[in-house]
Write a structure and sequence with these properties.
5-stranded mixed sheet, alpha/beta, about 50% helix
Protein backbone atom coordinates (compact mmCIF):
# COMPACT_ATOMS: atom_id res chain seq x y z
CA UNK A 1 0.00 0.00 0.00
CA UNK A 2 2.76 2.43 0.93
CA UNK A 3 4.53 1.75 -2.37
CA UNK A 4 1.28 2.50 -4.18
CA UNK A 5 0.97 5.77 -2.31
CA UNK A 6 4.45 6.84 -3.36
CA UNK A 7 3.65 5.86 -6.97
CA UNK A 8 0.47 7.94 -6.84
CA UNK A 9 2.45 10.92 -5.53
CA UNK A 10 4.96 10.49 -8.37
CA UNK A 11 2.18 10.36 -10.98
CA UNK A 12 0.27 13.31 -9.62
CA UNK A 13 3.14 15.48 -8.46
CA UNK A 14 1.24 16.06 -5.21
CA UNK A 15 1.75 15.14 -1.60
CA UNK A 16 -1.11 13.46 0.25
CA UNK A 17 -1.23 14.83 3.78
CA UNK A 18 -3.03 13.91 7.01
CA UNK A 19 -3.67 10.27 6.09
CA UNK A 20 -4.29 7.82 8.94
CA UNK A 21 -2.93 4.34 8.23
CA UNK A 22 -6.32 2.73 8.78
CA UNK A 23 -7.87 5.01 6.16
CA UNK A 24 -5.04 4.69 3.67
CA UNK A 25 -6.77 2.39 1.19
CA UNK A 26 -9.96 4.47 1.09
CA UNK A 27 -8.02 7.73 0.80
CA UNK A 28 -5.81 6.41 -1.97
CA UNK A 29 -8.80 5.11 -3.95
CA UNK A 30 -10.56 8.48 -3.75
CA UNK A 31 -7.40 10.33 -4.73
CA UNK A 32 -6.72 7.99 -7.64
CA UNK A 33 -10.29 8.35 -8.89
CA UNK A 34 -10.06 12.13 -8.73
CA UNK A 35 -6.67 12.21 -10.43
CA UNK A 36 -7.85 9.94 -13.24
CA UNK A 37 -10.92 12.12 -13.85
CA UNK A 38 -8.80 15.28 -14.01
CA UNK A 39 -6.32 13.66 -16.38
CA UNK A 40 -9.04 12.35 -18.69
CA UNK A 41 -10.79 15.73 -18.76
CA UNK A 42 -7.47 17.37 -19.67
CA UNK A 43 -6.89 14.95 -22.55
CA UNK A 44 -4.05 13.14 -20.75
CA UNK A 45 -5.36 9.79 -21.87
CA UNK A 46 -2.39 7.55 -21.11
CA UNK A 47 -1.89 9.09 -17.67
CA UNK A 48 -5.57 8.64 -16.87
CA UNK A 49 -5.44 4.99 -17.96
CA UNK A 50 -2.33 4.37 -15.85
CA UNK A 51 -3.99 5.92 -12.81
CA UNK A 52 -7.10 3.78 -13.28
CA UNK A 53 -4.90 0.68 -13.56
CA UNK A 54 -3.37 1.48 -10.18
CA UNK A 55 -6.82 2.05 -8.70
CA UNK A 56 -8.05 -1.32 -9.95
CA UNK A 57 -4.99 -3.04 -8.52
CA UNK A 58 -5.72 -1.41 -5.19
CA UNK A 59 -9.43 -2.23 -5.38
CA UNK A 60 -10.51 -4.70 -8.09
CA UNK A 61 -14.18 -3.97 -7.32
CA UNK A 62 -13.73 -0.32 -8.30
CA UNK A 63 -14.68 -1.20 -11.88
CA UNK A 64 -18.30 -1.25 -10.72
CA UNK A 65 -18.07 2.29 -9.32
CA UNK A 66 -20.15 4.71 -11.49
CA UNK A 67 -17.48 7.39 -11.07
CA UNK A 68 -14.80 5.03 -12.32
CA UNK A 69 -17.08 4.01 -15.18
CA UNK A 70 -17.45 7.70 -16.11
CA UNK A 71 -13.66 8.07 -16.28
CA UNK A 72 -13.42 4.96 -18.47
CA UNK A 73 -15.95 6.48 -20.88
CA UNK A 74 -13.97 9.74 -20.97
CA UNK A 75 -10.84 7.76 -21.82
CA UNK A 76 -12.72 5.92 -24.58
CA UNK A 77 -13.98 9.20 -26.04
CA UNK A 78 -10.44 10.62 -25.90
CA UNK A 79 -9.11 7.63 -27.82
CA UNK A 80 -11.82 8.00 -30.46
CA UNK A 81 -10.95 11.69 -30.90
CA UNK A 82 -7.27 10.81 -31.19
CA UNK A 83 -8.07 8.11 -33.77
CA UNK A 84 -10.10 10.57 -35.85
CA UNK A 85 -7.20 13.03 -35.81
CA UNK A 86 -4.82 10.24 -36.81
CA UNK A 87 -7.13 9.31 -39.72
CA UNK A 88 -7.07 12.82 -41.17
CA UNK A 89 -5.27 13.16 -44.49
CA UNK A 90 -3.64 16.32 -45.86
CA UNK A 91 -6.20 19.03 -46.52
CA UNK A 92 -8.85 17.41 -44.32
CA UNK A 93 -10.25 18.90 -41.13
CA UNK A 94 -11.66 17.57 -37.87
CA UNK A 95 -14.44 19.32 -35.98
CA UNK A 96 -14.72 18.28 -32.33
CA UNK A 97 -18.05 18.44 -30.50
CA UNK A 98 -17.08 18.02 -26.82
CA UNK A 99 -20.44 19.20 -25.51
CA UNK A 100 -22.67 17.38 -27.99
CA UNK A 101 -25.85 15.75 -26.77
CA UNK A 102 -27.46 12.42 -27.57
CA UNK A 103 -27.17 11.77 -31.31
CA UNK A 104 -24.51 14.43 -31.84
CA UNK A 105 -21.24 13.09 -33.32
CA UNK A 106 -18.21 13.22 -31.04
CA UNK A 107 -16.19 14.49 -34.01
CA UNK A 108 -16.75 15.22 -37.69
CA UNK A 109 -14.06 14.47 -40.26
CA UNK A 110 -14.40 16.70 -43.32
CA UNK A 111 -12.79 14.62 -46.05
CA UNK A 112 -11.46 15.48 -49.48
CA UNK A 113 -12.34 15.84 -52.25
CA UNK A 114 -15.73 17.44 -51.97
CA UNK A 115 -15.83 18.31 -48.25
CA UNK A 116 -17.68 15.10 -47.37
CA UNK A 117 -18.64 15.19 -43.69
CA UNK A 118 -18.26 11.93 -41.76
CA UNK A 119 -19.71 12.03 -38.25
CA UNK A 120 -17.96 9.77 -35.74
CA UNK A 121 -19.67 8.39 -32.61
CA UNK A 122 -18.13 6.66 -29.60
CA UNK A 123 -20.63 3.84 -29.06
CA UNK A 124 -21.17 2.69 -25.49
CA UNK A 125 -23.85 2.36 -22.82
CA UNK A 126 -23.69 4.61 -19.79
CA UNK A 127 -24.41 1.84 -17.30
CA UNK A 128 -21.88 -0.63 -18.71
CA UNK A 129 -24.55 -3.15 -19.72
CA UNK A 130 -23.85 -2.81 -23.44
CA UNK A 131 -27.53 -2.03 -24.08
CA UNK A 132 -29.47 1.12 -25.05
CA UNK A 133 -33.16 1.28 -24.30
CA UNK A 134 -35.66 1.94 -27.09
CA UNK A 135 -36.49 5.49 -25.95
CA UNK A 136 -32.85 6.61 -25.95
CA UNK A 137 -32.28 4.85 -29.27
CA UNK A 138 -35.20 6.68 -30.91
CA UNK A 139 -33.98 10.03 -29.59
CA UNK A 140 -30.48 9.26 -30.87
CA UNK A 141 -31.75 8.37 -34.34
CA UNK A 142 -33.94 11.47 -34.65
CA UNK A 143 -31.07 13.78 -33.73
CA UNK A 144 -28.46 11.99 -35.87
CA UNK A 145 -30.64 12.22 -38.97
CA UNK A 146 -30.82 16.00 -38.50
CA UNK A 147 -27.04 16.49 -38.31
CA UNK A 148 -25.29 17.84 -41.41
CA UNK A 149 -23.24 14.74 -42.27
CA UNK A 150 -23.08 12.56 -45.36
CA UNK A 151 -22.33 9.38 -43.36
CA UNK A 152 -21.63 8.15 -39.85
CA UNK A 153 -19.07 5.86 -38.24
CA UNK A 154 -19.75 4.14 -34.92
CA UNK A 155 -16.58 3.25 -33.01
CA UNK A 156 -17.93 0.47 -30.85
CA UNK A 157 -16.59 -0.11 -27.36
CA UNK A 158 -19.16 -2.59 -26.04
CA UNK A 159 -22.62 -2.09 -27.51
CA UNK A 160 -24.51 -5.26 -28.43
CA UNK A 161 -24.83 -6.02 -32.13
CA UNK A 162 -28.63 -5.71 -32.15
CA UNK A 163 -28.46 -2.25 -30.57
CA UNK A 164 -25.92 -1.11 -33.14
CA UNK A 165 -28.06 -2.50 -35.95
CA UNK A 166 -31.14 -0.70 -34.59
CA UNK A 167 -29.23 2.60 -34.59
CA UNK A 168 -27.79 2.00 -38.07
CA UNK A 169 -31.12 0.96 -39.57
CA UNK A 170 -32.89 3.93 -38.01
CA UNK A 171 -30.38 6.42 -39.39
CA UNK A 172 -30.37 4.80 -42.84
CA UNK A 173 -34.16 4.44 -43.02
CA UNK A 174 -35.87 6.05 -46.05
CA UNK A 175 -32.63 6.79 -47.86
CA UNK A 176 -30.82 8.26 -44.86
CA UNK A 177 -27.08 8.52 -44.46
CA UNK A 178 -24.97 5.34 -44.62
CA UNK A 179 -23.48 4.03 -41.38
CA UNK A 180 -20.30 2.05 -40.71
CA UNK A 181 -19.04 0.27 -37.59
CA UNK A 182 -15.48 -0.14 -36.34
CA UNK A 183 -15.24 -2.38 -33.26
CA UNK A 184 -12.27 -2.06 -30.92
CA UNK A 185 -11.16 -5.02 -28.84
CA UNK A 186 -10.59 -2.61 -25.95
CA UNK A 187 -9.76 1.03 -25.34
CA UNK A 188 -6.16 -0.07 -24.94
CA UNK A 189 -6.16 -1.50 -28.48
CA UNK A 190 -7.67 1.17 -30.73
CA UNK A 191 -7.69 0.28 -34.43
CA UNK A 192 -6.96 2.82 -37.21
CA UNK A 193 -10.13 4.45 -38.52
CA UNK A 194 -8.99 5.40 -42.01
CA UNK A 195 -9.96 2.08 -43.67
CA UNK A 196 -13.49 2.34 -42.23
CA UNK A 197 -13.74 5.98 -43.32
CA UNK A 198 -12.64 5.09 -46.86
CA UNK A 199 -15.27 2.33 -47.01
CA UNK A 200 -17.92 4.85 -45.96
CA UNK A 201 -16.74 7.32 -48.59
CA UNK A 202 -17.12 4.62 -51.26
CA UNK A 203 -20.70 4.05 -50.09
CA UNK A 204 -21.48 7.78 -50.07
CA UNK A 205 -20.28 8.07 -53.65
CA UNK A 206 -21.63 4.71 -54.80
CA UNK A 207 -25.01 3.38 -55.95
CA UNK A 208 -28.01 3.64 -53.62
CA UNK A 209 -28.11 -0.12 -52.89
CA UNK A 210 -24.55 0.05 -51.55
CA UNK A 211 -25.52 2.93 -49.28
CA UNK A 212 -28.20 0.80 -47.63
CA UNK A 213 -25.90 -2.00 -46.47
CA UNK A 214 -26.23 -2.56 -42.72
CA UNK A 215 -22.75 -3.19 -41.25
CA UNK A 216 -22.04 -6.19 -39.05
CA UNK A 217 -19.21 -6.53 -36.58
Amino acid sequence: MIGGLFLLMALSGRTIESVRFGDLEVTMAAELRRQAAEQADSGLTEQAQATLNILKQLNPASGQDPEVRAVELSIFENRVREAVEAARSDGEQVEHHPNGGLGEPLAVLVTQPGDVRIGVFAAYSLDGSGRIDATASDRFIRRAREVDCAAYLFVNGQLHQEDLERLAEGIQRDGGQPVGVETWASTAQPAPLRPAIDRLLARVRGPQDERRTIPRQ
